[in-house]
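Exercise 7b. Backbone tokens:
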């Protein structure tokens, strides 16, 4: 007897083969099973999305190819994972195969059944060894502040997504850690997903989770891992061994069969949005994922929530807990806003700023100046004919770099030497417009050397 699995394979986003493809199998395959199938001239990894006992009417049974192999040692991907993939593909208008296969670790796509079995055995052995070697070193749990206690109490009974609106240094991470610890204590198999922006996945943060929950229970998932490490983390999560997964944007797609809690730290951070391949917001998918999995809660943390998150909380779709105070009464730095409209024309550095920098320099201290313009000036312009240094390939201007006398487009990389005269009218007096970091550096150095005789 033959079975007719529908298999999700990686297909280009807008090709006509966006749906699952029918194959033939001599055995019944569970939904979510991984298989290797022929696709054109290639042999590729696929995910079983359904398995019929009869060939679909629209398909010519004699032309259907058999699957190459069933990766039967691996438990199938769960229904909630497949649901997340289906939702993502539909909502962000990509093919199911593109989203599904991009969500799996690259190394998984290369393995045949024998290699996978070997990999699973090794994973099991490493796990046994790790369990013997590392007893979770219990970190000292600091005493919670009244605000943290209020948030923890509220979160424990919240039935909606939680917005933890906590100032920088108010101890949001400690709240995550304690909610996570409680969740693990309440459910013997529970898994927790902690999402952080790319830049925030620091060794210090990892160390805090490792210290609290033990190396054996925590895995991380981010682009800095080798393909082999990524596969190992992914397998640990999929097999239910990893209780806490700490990861960046892509970790929202991790297979977590016992997911009970999702934390999205710095939920406003733009790095949660994928800007290449399938576009998606990991924060929004985290909300969907928690919503569609029964019993799963979600906490969004931020000192500066995204407007849409704030609005959802105002509307009562999310519940908000406030932690405005800093731990240990640490004071915020004093900020001063200088209105440049009220400064004399052509002012680059306002007098109070320049005085403050000079004072720091006199004390042998350092200052950090930030400016979001590269090069010496963002545009060169000819006063005689209105020529501007625009890029022939883009709609952007080419930036003037004084150091190597180049005009560079920072969109397409087009670089030329600075012309000696206006390329349009021959005027030799070309002006810079605006200022970049090179010019600022020159100016500050000049002012400081003038200030110190
Ligand atoms: Zn000109
Ligand atoms: Zn360009």
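Sequence design result:
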């Amino acid at each position: 007897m033959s079975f007719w699995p529908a298999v999700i394979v990686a297909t280009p986003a807008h090709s006509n083969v966006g749906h699952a493809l029918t194959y033939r199998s001599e055995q019944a395959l569970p939904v979510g099973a991984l298989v290797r199938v022929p696709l054109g001239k290639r042999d590729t990894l696929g995910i079983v999305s359904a398995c019929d006992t009869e060939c679909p009417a629209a398909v010519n049974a004699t032309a259907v190819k058999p699957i190459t192999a069933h990766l039967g040692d691996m438990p199938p991907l769960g229904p909630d994972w497949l649901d997340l993939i289906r939702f993502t593909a539909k909502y962000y208008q990509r093919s199911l195969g593109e989203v599904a296969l991009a969500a799996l670790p690259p190394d998984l796509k290369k393995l045949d059944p024998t290699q996978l079995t070997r990999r699973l055995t090794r994973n099991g052995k490493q796990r046994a060894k790790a369990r013997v070697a590392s007893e979770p070193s219990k970190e000292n749990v600091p005493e919670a502040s009244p605000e943290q206690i209020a948030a923890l109490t509220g979160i424990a009974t919240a039935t909606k997504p939680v917005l933890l609106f906590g100032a920088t240094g108010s101890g949001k991470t400690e709240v995550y850690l304690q909610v996570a610890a409680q969740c693990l204590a309440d459910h013997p198999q529970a898994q927790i997903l902690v999402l952080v922006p790319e830049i925030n996945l620091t060794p210090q943060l990892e160390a805090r989770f490792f210290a609290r929950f033990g190396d054996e229970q925590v895995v991380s998932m981010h682009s800095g891992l080798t393909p082999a490490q990524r596969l190992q983390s992914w397998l640990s999560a999929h097999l239910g061994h990893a209780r806490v997964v700490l990861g960046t944007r892509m970790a929202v797609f991790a297979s977590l069969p016992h997911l009970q809690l999702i934390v999205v730290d710095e939920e406003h951070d733009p790095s949660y949005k994928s800007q290449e391949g399938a576009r998606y917001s990991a924060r929004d998918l985290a909300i969907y994922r928690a919503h569609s999995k029964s019993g799963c809660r979600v906490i969004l943390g931020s000192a500066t929530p995204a407007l849409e998150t704030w609005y959802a909380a105002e509307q009562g779709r999310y519940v908000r807990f406030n932690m405005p105070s800093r731990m240990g009464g640490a004071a915020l730095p004093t900020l001063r806003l200088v209105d440049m409209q009220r400064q004399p024309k052509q002012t680059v550095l306002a007098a109070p700023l320049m005085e403050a920098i000079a004072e720091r320099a006199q004390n042998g201290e350092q200052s950090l100046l930030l400016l979001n313009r590269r090069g010496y000036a963002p545009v060169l312009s000819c006063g005689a004919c209105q020529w501007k240094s625009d890029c022939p390939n883009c709609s952007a201007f080419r930036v003037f770099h004084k150091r190597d006398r180049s005009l560079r487009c920072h969109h397409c990389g087009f670089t030329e030497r600075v012309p000696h005269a206006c390329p349009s009218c021959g005027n030799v007096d070309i002006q810079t417009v605006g200022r970049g970091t090179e010019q600022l550096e020159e100016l500050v150095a000049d002012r400081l050397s003038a200030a110190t005789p």
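Instructor comment: Residues 113-133 form the longest helix (21 residues). Residues 382, 384-385, 387, 422, 424-425, 427 surround zinc ion (ligand 1) (CB under 6 Å).
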